[in-house]
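quick one, 305 residues, struct below
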Amino acid sequence: MSARTTELNQHTSSSSQIFLSFYELMKPRVMSLVMFTALVGLVIAPIQIHFMKAALSLFFVAIGAGAAGALNMWYESDTDKLMSRTCLRPLPLGKLKQVHALWFGLAMTLISITGLYFSSNLLSALILATTIGFYFFIYTVWLKRRTPQNIVIGGAAGAFPPVIGWTIATNSISVEPIVLFLIIFLWTPSHFWALSLYKNEDYKNAGIPMLPVVAGEEYTKKNILFYSIILFPITILPFLLGFAGVVNLITAILFGTYYIYLCFKLFRESNKKVYDKIGTRVFVFSIFYLFFIFSTILVDNFLKI
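---
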């Protein structure tokens, strides 16, 4: 192999690593969840729009989610390097410079809001701008390092995508997207507090006042159970309001009952090693819980059951 070929291969490899690092900045798993929940809001809307318009609009929503993730990583790079869960992100590892993350996040913010405005409407663009601003300024900058209720209030940012999906199609807001907003909003605390239980030392080391750090693990377990209970009736509302059917209703009842059971089991357990394992199960199952609630809304809308 010639020296020129070796140099080209190294350059290609370096470019791929840089691209991957910027992709990781956008929190792709969160971005995929945002796209999915926005899709549900779009599909259940009473007005159908052209496929290309829908696809392009959802693309800009995803870019907006990625922009929020990049700005979050830029601002929290100092604490990310102190936590086992986040220490392998691009900035703590030195794969990218902070200034690159900042400008990337700002550029993606501008592109996503402007793109959504031209591909859909002003209302959708304004809600996307509000979502990005809320996640960065309210949650990341203001709440996260100041109050154990950070994830409760800040969870609103993650609950906006189905509302955006609805407004892309209708240019208005109705009760249906508000119900979807409430499902995500009330799901978020138990989901993240379960994570913070078994990552408690991480948050202590980083100086982040998550509920287990400030109020103790017993109080946290009580709140996880509380939110799992109040979430249950809200997940039934799509069926009661007529924008989901029997498949969604059965899923909501079965998954919701088992989720409450897991949270109750976590609440009753006093052995630290055991409830750390249960907390992990609560965290993982909560992801499937939300996914199947929204998936079956899509299924019911396609089947019209």
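The chain has a mean pLDDT of 92.
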